[in-house]
Amino acid sequence: MVEGFGRSFTDAEKFEIPLKNVNVPTLVIAGRHDLIVPLKGSRKAVKTLPRARLLVLDDSGHCSPEEEPEKVAAAILPFLRSGR
């Protein structure tokens, strides 16, 4: 599933689960310098997911929780508390 989910960010037309059907609050955290899931793909996924928000971390690559843990935590905790 992880591989398929990753593909959804880069090739949404070929993904088996339509992201437009994922109707739950979703926070997409993207590193601006991510070479595995490019920012363009994250932006596309957020446009497709009905209830998604995008957080772009300017100083991160693919491992944002390790590279900028404070910023990731600061985004996730309010997101979880808000329920949206």
SSE topology sketch:
Elements: H1 2-10, E1 26-31, H2 39-48, E2 52-57, H3 64-67, H4 69-82
Parallel strand pairs: 1-2
What's the count of strands?
2
Structural classification: alpha+beta
- Beta-strand percentage? 5-15%
* H/E topology pattern: HEHEHH
Sum up the overall morphology in one term: flat
Strand order of the largest sheet: 1-2
Whole-number radius of gyration? 13 Å
Instruction: List segments where confidence is low: pLDDT < 50 over at least 5 consecutive residues.
Output: none
Mean pLDDT: 85
Work out the helix count.
Answer: 4
N-to-C span: 24 Å
Q: Give a short account of the largest sheet.
A: 2 strands, parallel
The helix content, as a percent range, equals: 40-55%
Structure notes:
- The protein has a two-stranded parallel sheet.
- The chain is 44% helix and 14% strand.
- The chain has helices spanning 2-10, 39-48, 64-67, 69-82, and strands at residues 26-31, 52-57.
- The longest helix is centred in the C-terminal third of the chain and has 14 residues, at 69-82.
- The protein is built from four helices and two strands; from the N terminus they run H-E-H-E-H-H.
- The two termini are 24 Å apart.
